[in-house]
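Review form for a predicted model. The reviewer records the input and the model, then writes brief findings.
Reviewer: anonymous (R2)
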Amino acid sequence: MTQTTLDFLLTRRSHSPKTLTAPVPTRAQLEPILTAAARVPDHGMLTPWRFIVLERPALARLAATVRRLGAEQALPEEVVAKGAAQFETSPLAVVVVHVPRATEKIPAIEQVLSTGAACLALVNAALASGWGAGWVTGWVSHDPTFCRQGLDLAEGEFVAGIVHIGTSSVQPIDRPRPDLTSVVTWVDA
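Model under review:
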């Protein structure tokens, strides 16, 4: 057993993207984080996900896209502002895109679960590397026009998560965790 790794997992805490600032990992520093995120369970070795790294200029462009689409859809200003804020204030983000693969052997749900595992692995790898990181979505992640125009997603692809990475301006406070007695069933026969 590697106690250090277990201790990390027992105390890990995502950071609110609102608290992340520069500096951010360089491309060279981000590469091992992305490599670790790619080492997730993947039945059939389909790689049903991909990563889009959003640096500051792309984040600014996406914030403007959110504001334009929100106005076109007549969404409430507070909804639009919240959707745009994650791009306006983020120093760096990685979009984890689910890429469904046509196969009769691997159920679609297993591909989706692999994509979710890539999101968590990305957050954990960033945290383990000393960065702050948080996984969010929001209405923009599920808006087909934003996904097509802003992120150039193909038909059938969807955003599983947007992982913001940077330097945390505040230490996150741990939140209550589930009581194991309410979520664990022991079966001994």
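Findings: DSSP finds eight helices and five strands in the chain.
Further findings: The CA atoms of residues 6 and 176 lie 19 Å apart.
Recommendation: see findings above.
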